[in-house]
Amino acid sequence: MTTLKPVLQVTDLNVSFGPDTVVRGISLTVNPGECLALVGESGSGKSVTARSLLGLAGRGAHVRAKTLSVAGYDAQKLSTRGWRKLRGAHVGFILQDALTSLDPLRTVGKEIEDVLRLHGSASGSQRAARVIELLQAVGLDDPVRRAGQRSGELSGGMRQRALIASAIAMDPALIIADEPTTALDATIAAAVLGLLRDLRRGGAGMLLISHDLAAVSATADSIAVMANGRIVEQGPRAQVLEDPQHPYTRALLAAAPSGKPRFTRLSPSAGAPSSAPQPSGAATTAPPLGTVDAQPLLRARGLAKSFPMAGSADFRAVSSVDFELFPARTLGVVGESGSGKTTTARMALGLLVPDAGSVEFCGEPWSAAAESARRARRPSLGAIYQDPLSSFDPRLSTASLLADSLSFGATRNPRSYSGEISQLLEMVGLHPDLAPRNPATLSGGQRQRLAIARALAPKPKVLICDEPVSALDVSIQAQVLDLLDELQQSLGLSYLLISHDLAVIRHMSDDVLVMKAGEVVESGATESVFTNPQHSYTRALLAATSSES
Amino acid sequence: MSIHNSMLPLTDPVLVSAGTRVPRPGATLARRLVRRLPTVIAAVVLLFFILAAIAPYLLAPDDPLAINPAAAFSPPGPGHLLGTDESGRDIYSRIIHGARPSLLIGAAATAAGLGLALVLGIAAGFGGRWLDFGIGRILEVLFALPGLLLALVFIALAGPGVGTTVLAVALTTAPGYARVIRGQIIALRASPMVEAATVLGRSRWRILTAHILPNALAPVAVLATLGLGQAVLWAASLSFLGLGSPPPAPEWGTMLSAGRTYLSLAWWMTFFPGLAIVILAGSATVLSRSMKAASSQ
Fold first, then answer.
1. Which of A378, A429, A454 minimises the CB distance to B11?
2. For B215, which of A394, A438, A456 is closest by C-beta distance?
3. Parts of chain A with a pLDDT under 50
4. Are the beta carbons of B108 and B166 closer than 8 angstroms?
5. Predicted structure pTM score
6. GO MF annotations for this entry (chain A) (predicted)?
């Protein structure tokens, strides 16, 4: 291997936009048949790095390097035309969102054929045959039919495979994949990563870019961890994962919730040493259930909901869902996109009327009650969402949002509630100085903390959390999950936690529902479900996540 | 279980400290507006016409109705900046004095159009499926008729005059506003923000007045500025056709109409009132475009 020329050699790469330097002196080497994972959180400069290697750093970007050798070419000497020859023919590029990377008006076959036509000289019939061959190679069933379909007719996983087919069409020496599986469900992501592993065995070098250390660990041979435009740690996979040297790498590994028992801190706490995760004083299991008054706060029986579809039979989003949520407990709902998780949450919140079945809240009818009767009880049942900003009135400041919530909608004037607002902000770990700010100027993690503060203001018993951390970086996700844990222990809250992420659910939940295609395929105490899964789908889901970590 | 007895800082606040101060959104909006020169010019022009409407004698001391047959058809020059008309009246004074009826009709028509549109838009957006359907069809009928024709029909039925001109122009512009308001309300009704307010237990009325309407009206304010220029144009068109203020009132459309007869002899009689209409309508358009650009950034 060492005698082979590296397909990518970068030394001292700097990228700046005007006065802002976003990549500071990084060096990378990828040998043929080798996969290097570049891991970092948002804003670390990893995507700009990838784009610079393709000559696509963007308008106003200033790229400098001691060496910048891409697929054997000196990239710093390339003309626009030279870059075009390099891209597609010698370097394949795979992006996160295949839907926007493929032309919606052209068939997948045409898109792949383009690459062959622009860079090769084969005849039309040879190209058509090669397209079918490529689609087969990336594991699409019925490739002849797929070649005639447009990107909108394919599922997310199929689209990503088609995009990979176009990237490898010319057998490039180097493949750059920027977050190739981030938009995909766990089982599909695992299959796509498997496909990328196979490509590497074919001799191509690969640069895999991801925010998720766990997701790339099974595919990469070596890992480079990036933060603030610098590579803070780089080495063979096993060394980085098992014996991380840099505190940032350690924090990233500690932040991943997979395999961490319930109530284990994921983020470095204020007092405790920052490296090892510390169990937080309390018991590592949920508070024991009172056997006498173990009344469920929220109880759903036989919930079902269908939506009318144009020109076809009704879509059954949820059919026959039962669950019980007890005081101070967390019920996790896990499933892939389209499994009916959010529809279930909306019925539990009384925003959707179920077609069949019912929801009871505190032992009284909830879904069957009129909205006017529900309204007075709504403060006891709060919610937080995946995108907190869109759930805020854009005209209100942080303080006004909280005043509105504290006063049950009577006023937005924060003056009469300034004490309570500061207390709420501190409770969720936000500095009271943030009160006058518009939420749009807060970071993603701060916004979710604010959403939690707003939900807590009317003193709810139950919080329904719909994908509360899936838009956040791993280290921020860890902080928010820790905050939810702390609030549960100090306030005795109950959570209905919805997530596509098995690791998050496993770390946070006492009980779990596994949903697939609108049905609960398995339910029970979290550890027993995950250590001894009964249903084949639960097993498949577990296998998909464990192959990543 | 009370929140208040356990109000302790649970997470290190240093991690999420306030950071740099961000100016209020209003301040940045103003700064963005100022940064653009065309916007400044448009604003100055509009302010000039508003001043002309409020205090015309400040800008043009001459009487706009004073006849001076000896000076009839004087070309633009030192004595009469923009020339005189067939009776020797000063065109500049007439244009300055004409700003008041033009702006007044424009503003009143825009306000009336917006008011009508608000009622229709809110009823359609919030009144349920059947009301939405009914209002939608009425708006389509109004859209199907050319605007000027609709205004002419209305004036033919109600008789000419300032009041009817205002109502006629309002009727012509209202359907467009109503569509935008309805669309905004429908989009906001399904927004996560309204869902969150529902979950917090807010009533329908509270959600409508506190969350939906203020957010739905922001883009309408931009449209209204654009509509002001349009309404001035409509009003001038109607008085050009002899359906507005009768001559010799200093009204821009009436002046255009009067000058038409002498176009080959005294081009300034038509040119300068026309220019005033173009400048005023153009300034309103420029201003509304920069408001839109600033609010969508």
1. A429
2. A394
3. 1-2, 271-292, 548-549
4. yes
5. 0.76
6. ATP binding; ATP hydrolysis activity
